[in-house]
Amino acid sequence: MAPVDLVMTTIGVVVKINGVLEKFRRNNDECGMIYGLVDTVGRDLMLLRDAPIMEDATVRPVMERLKCTLERTAAEVIKCQTSRALVRFFRTDDVAAKLDQLRQDISEKMLGLVLATSVSTNTLVQGIGRRMDQNFELMLQEMHKIIYAALPALLLPLQSKLELLEQRTADHTTEDARNKNRRETDKTGGLIKYSWSALEASLASNEEIGGGHISTVYKGELNKIPVAIKKFGNVNLPARERFVDELRLVSKLQHGNVIEILGHCYEYSESLVQEGNDIRVDRNGHLGFVSRYMPNQSLVRIIKLGNQPIDWPSLFRLIQGIAKGVHYLHEQRVVHLDLKPKTILLDHDMTPKINDFGTARELGPSGDNITLDVENIPGTK
């Protein structure tokens, strides 16, 4: 059986199983959970339909076992006439655990093949002492593109994926509040414009969660949504210019591995104050960014907790996420210039987000030369 036929046949079995589960899932929570598990397996398999690596001898046997397990499951599910019988079958035979294990077996073998191919190719290129032919490199990238797209979904255990689904569902419940906030607040260039009084009222007891020599980051809550509020300590002309440059840059960026800026605060005023025979200029204002709160802080915390090893799937997702974020920035002709553990934040499911674009530069269409002060190189402090 051809690789595509094998995958499509297996997906067909998943559809058959869920056709039966559909009758019960709305009336029984456990049936709904089982439906979600099986449906997730089917969605992951859809990612593999056109993957050339499915022809490999180490992957096909596991795929065959998955198909057989699903076929046996389908035969038993069809016999079940009640939701109670259905749940009893899945509990007794531990079907969910078997499907999850087979699914991860496939992903681990695929990952090994991708890494082996990459190492083999690099060794060959170094051995002959010349640059890799561009066409060959593009062909190799195209061959692996499907696999790299599928791996993050396959490596994440089913139960974790369901928890993420529940989190996304919970996030949708706050959408009305978010929309209400957007209707009531001015917007500039797609970003919400906040007054400092509104941000100050949202702070959670002035809880500091980060910062540096030019800013302090606080945890706050806007319309029941946890946020991080970055307040800049200075409002002089250079600080305001840097703020506008950074705002102009981040407002253009939209990627799953780049921090999402929700809004900003830009308030500034000057007044003349007379003190005796002297008159001075009194400058007042507030500069700040509002972004989504990242509950797992930054990579610095992960590194400091070195006694708690990260499993390989999670580590792979971290590496891949950072690489995707940097690749996206370079596609936008943006050079970060300060990428380090402190500027990589982690959301609730450990997805990395590149943050802090204060020193970033956007290159022109023909490319620019970036000159750095050797005594003040970004990323060294």
Automatic annotation (TrEMBL):
Swiss-Prot/TrEMBL keywords = ATP-binding, Kinase, Nucleotide-binding, Serine/threonine-protein kinase, Transferase
What high-level taxonomic lineage is stated for the organism? Answer: Eukaryota, Viridiplantae, Streptophyta, Embryophyta, Tracheophyta
Reaction catalysis annotation? L-seryl-[protein] + ATP = O-phospho-L-seryl-[protein] + ADP + H(+); L-threonyl-[protein] + ATP = O-phospho-L-threonyl-[protein] + ADP + H(+)
Q: What is the name attached to this protein's record?
A: non-specific serine/threonine protein kinase
User: Which domain of life, per UniProt?
Assistant: Eukaryota
Carries keyword Kinase? Answer: yes
Which molecular function terms from Gene Ontology are attached? ATP binding; protein serine/threonine kinase activity
Query: Protein kinase domain: from which residue to which, for each copy?
Result: 203-381
| EC annotation from Swiss-Prot or TrEMBL | 2.7.11.1
Single GO BP term: cell surface receptor signaling pathway
EC class name: transferase
Against PROSITE patterns, the record matches this protein to: PROTEIN_KINASE_DOM
Look up keyword Kinase and say if it applies: yes
